[in-house]
Amino acid sequence: xxxxxxxxxxxxxxxxxxxxxxxxxxxxxxxxxxxxxxxxxxxxxxxxxxxxxxxxxxxxxxxxxxxxxxxxxxxxxxxxxxxxxxxxxxxxxxxxxxxxxxxxxxxxxxxxxxxxxxxxxxxxxxxxxxxxxxxxxxxxxxxxxxxxxxxxxxxxxxxxxxxxxxxxxxxxxxxxxxxxxxxxxxxxxxxxxxxxxxxxxxxxxxxxxxxxxxxxxxxxxxxxxxxxxxxxxxxxxxxxxxxxxxxxxxxxxxxxxxxxxxxxxxxxxxxxxxxxxxxxxxxxxxxxxxxxxxxxxxxxxxxxxxxxxxxxxxx
Length: 315
Fold this sequence. Notes:
Layout: H1 2-29, H2 34-39, H3 45-55, H4 61-73, H5 87-122, H6 127-141, H7 144-158, H8 174-180, H9 182-208, H10 211-218, H11 223-235, H12 237-252, H13 255-260, H14 266-275, H15 279-314
Helix pairs in contact: 1-15, 5-6, 5-9, 5-12, 6-9, 7-9, 9-11, 9-12, 10-11, 12-15, 14-15
């Protein structure tokens, strides 16, 4: 197991290096001059040239990449051209909100998706299975922004169960803020739950037909115990892997929902960095999100190996 962990960590570092290099080079191709963005369009060519020289933008690309990565390893992601603040501080201030939404969405998607997927497998090709599959198709077809607008219109504006423009302060008003985040969380859960249901249904059906289920039956275990102890435990590997990838995606994939609900998270910060061509901020966000995806992927693979090994030993 230790060798496997070390190998996966080395692979992750390699992938991170390639992604950061390609991202850095790709962003340099974009026709956006950081010096002009900082000084404004009315700046003289001389002042722009002086600032470019001071920022090291005239140096070779590989030299710029090396200097940027050296600063990153020291915890410095640079300074945002648009906000004028450290990129790391901007990410740190927006992360709690996005992380809370991502955690809640992943949790609810895993719980409800596993529950519905399990029942769909147990009642395969019967009425309940068809209803759950229809719900799965509908949840994947509905755009999150449209569902979010409906939720805001009826649940917030008309019924006033939630605030239309929520004032989120997780540090000082945690439970009140958490309640206001339930609405965007519900919207994301409905759109993210479909793949979890399908994965659980398929994995659960395969687990019920596996040889170790026959061995458990021969041991005299009850059907309920066989399903919970062996089938569900084995089938959970598929939705667990999917949920971890969904969580990693949500770290940088909540842009639409955060925009609809006016939430100051990483998603809106990413949108602003693109709109304002803030390359330093965009680089920092891509690096942070990529690192999160790699870390979550490694942890998921380790959990997968652990659960799979324990299931085989248990049977």
